[in-house]
From TrEMBL:
InterPro entries given in the database record: Cyt_P450, Cyt_P450_B, Cyt_P450_sf
PANTHER family noted in UniProt: BIOTIN BIOSYNTHESIS CYTOCHROME P450, P450, PUTATIVE (EUROFUNG)-RELATED
Record bears the keyword Heme: yes
UniProt keyword terms in alphabetical order: Heme, Iron, Metal-binding, Monooxygenase, Oxidoreductase
Organism encoding this protein: Virgisporangium aliadipatigenens
Source domain of life: Bacteria
Protein family membership: Belongs to the cytochrome P450 family.
CDD domains xref list: CYP142-like
Keyword Nucleotidyltransferase annotated: no
BP terms from Gene Ontology: antibiotic biosynthetic process; cholesterol catabolic process
Name of the encoding gene: cyp124
Molecular-function GO term, any one: iron ion binding
Name of the protein this chain belongs to: Methyl-branched lipid omega-hydroxylase
Parts forming coiled coils: none
Amino acid sequence: MTVIDFDLSDRAFWALPHDQRERAFRQLRALDAPVFYEEPEVPFAPKGPGYYALVHHADVVAASRNPKVFASGRGGAISVPDLPEDFAEYFGSMINMDDPRHARLRRIVNRAFTPATVAQLTGNVRTVAEQITEELLAAGPGGDFVTTAAARLPLKIICDLMGLPESEYGFVLEHSNTILGGFDPEYGSADLAETGMMLLNAGMQLQQLVQDIAVRRERAPTDDLTSALVHANVDGERLTLQELGSFFILLLVAGNETTRHSITAGLRLLTVNPDQRALLTSDLDTLAPGAVEEIVRVTSPVIFMRRKLTQDHELNGQQYREGDKVVLFYNSANVDEAVFTDPYRFDITRSPNPHLGFGAAGPHFCLGAHLARLEITEMLCVLLRRIPTIEGGEPVYLYSNFINGVKHMPYTF
Ligand code: HEM
């Protein structure tokens, strides 16, 4: 085991300024073997044996593409401690499953997220981005960019897809903030046991919302995704109400937070890199797709996913045993010097840009990646065209070891 003077399992590590954390990950990448960390003590799950921190691009890629050995379904992928039963009821959707259950669920929902289906949403996404931008303009400078703009687009789009009325937006936003609020006292509690209860409560509330809608769609189908899910029939099987509920929670949470943070971080990156902004605005249509990929790389909205070894296995020279846990640190893989030249430079023309912001190729690669790209592109392009002088001020970051998020950011124009 390598001795290193910081601990990724310590909550205090995730409160350090960004550049100090980056320095720590740089040190980890300079080692020739992954460091093993003890698991943090949490009140809602038994303490596990610990985990290896995979910080290299090559390790994250190799583990992601070998799901038979690196499983998501053994205690879950979204948390280092194994998810207890009551959590799994609400948060145990496809992201925490292996085949064949994973493949079955993914087949049911894939159609709604293909590039072709998502492309049909372009007009709608643009109209919403335009409305938000007009309201921001009318409100004048000095507000919070997250609540005035960035949070609203993904929330509306995902709620529309699922068939949730506008009256539920506030409810959905509040509970998804709680679920991905990490250690942040603004959304949870300083006490982990209390945060656990708040998480369960948020899951229960959202589950109830889905069940109400599902029952209505069962009787009277519409053209929304909830109707498609309620009536989906794959190999003669229907989704159970519990599967529907936890999938719905996954979509709401995954679809909201990550995209919101990318939009906010995008405006900030363009503000502090005026050369890149000038380049982008010189040819928005051509350069926007590359800029969006670079925003997701630099931001790495999802910090990690976890896998558990189903058998003894050697990966890139390191021997793992059955039952070992590995944590795939996307934030570190995305600035791995072995893959990215000048990795801390924000370069909208970076090519190739094999970032792992949406995960690496494998069965769990982000289902919503095309939708997220569309939303980030439309929101930033509409803003830059309509309010060319808009700038993002100093962000207030979320305190979390799972999501690189911005809670608030002032804007001026
Ligand atoms: C910038 C925005 C986003 C980022 C950075 C992001 C990132 C990720 C990552 C890292 C994973 C895990 C990949 C793995 O385990 O290999 C993932 C999975 C997933 N994402 Fe996203 N995501 C984003 C937006 C969205 C949106 C908009 C939706 C849906 C509307 C969505 C739905 C999902 C789902 C359902 C999964 C689980 C897929 C599976 O297990 O098969 N994501 N995402």
